[in-house]
Write a structure and sequence with these properties.
The chain is an alpha+beta fold and about 210 residues long. The protein is built from five helices and five strands; from the N terminus they run E-E-E-E-E-H-H-H-H-H. A hairpin with a 5-residue loop joins strand 2 and strand 3.
């Protein structure tokens, strides 16, 4: 029997392409309600392979995930652009950067720099110099070293990508930009939102 094919957006190669449904399995997913009760929600796991880059994507359809698409919500690869905790201005810059990720690493680096600018402005920091903006965003002595290093590397790489230089950014730089951008966005928006939600759930009700 021929395997089903459908068009999906591939997070691996950044294109909408024909995907092959490799396997579809009915199962369930463990979830915990706000009052502490654990139950299992019926779901369907669908495994797809991209016809372009042969990358693998996993979708889950259940009442706990986006129910509108036929195959539900993509849970692998993870995409932070789906997170509602990210402000619209930052999300726009982040999305524009991801659109060109697989077209040009130099352009991707320059757009990643724009994401840093959007974060600084959203945090109320406005300066003609990105270096000064980042210094205010991540004060020395109060910012985790990994975050400061990631931001500094993104800023410098963004400068190289935006200007004519002898540096040609390669695939390894592309992966690093994506990883470091994720760290920065998670630190400022996703982790605080998740922590706030759990704090709310753990507070005793009166």
């Amino acid at each position: 029997m021929a395997k089903r094919k459908t068009y999906l957006f591939c997070q691996h190669c950044g294109h909408a392409s024909l995907h092959t449904l490799i396997s579809s399995v009915a199962s369930d997913e463990r979830c915990c309600s706000a009052d502490g009760y654990v139950h299992h929600e019926p779901c369907t796991y669908s495994l797809f392979q991209c016809g372009g880059c042969i990358g693998i994507s996993l979708y889950i359809w259940s009442a706990l995930h986006l129910p509108e698409p036929e195959f539900g919500e993509r849970v692998y690869p993870v995409n932070d652009l789906d997170n509602t905790a990210i402000p619209a201005t930052v999300l726009l810059a982040y999305g524009e950067a991801e659109k060109i990720r697989f077209q040009s690493t130099n352009a991707y680096a320059a757009m990643a720099r724009c994401v840093l600018e959007a974060i600084a402005e959203e945090q109320g920091i406005r300066s003609s110099s990105l270096f000064h903006s980042m210094s205010q965003l991540c004060p020395e002595g109060t910012t985790p070293l990994y975050l400061a290093d990631a931001i500094n590397w993104l800023r410098k790489t963004g400068n190289e990508g935006a200007h004519v230089s002898k540096t040609k950014l390669e695939g390894v730089h592309n992966d690093m930009i994506a990883s470091f951008l994720q760290i920065v966005v998670q630190h400022f928006y996703i982790f605080p939102a998740e922590l706030g939600m759990f704090k709310y759930l753990l507070e005793p009700t009166e």
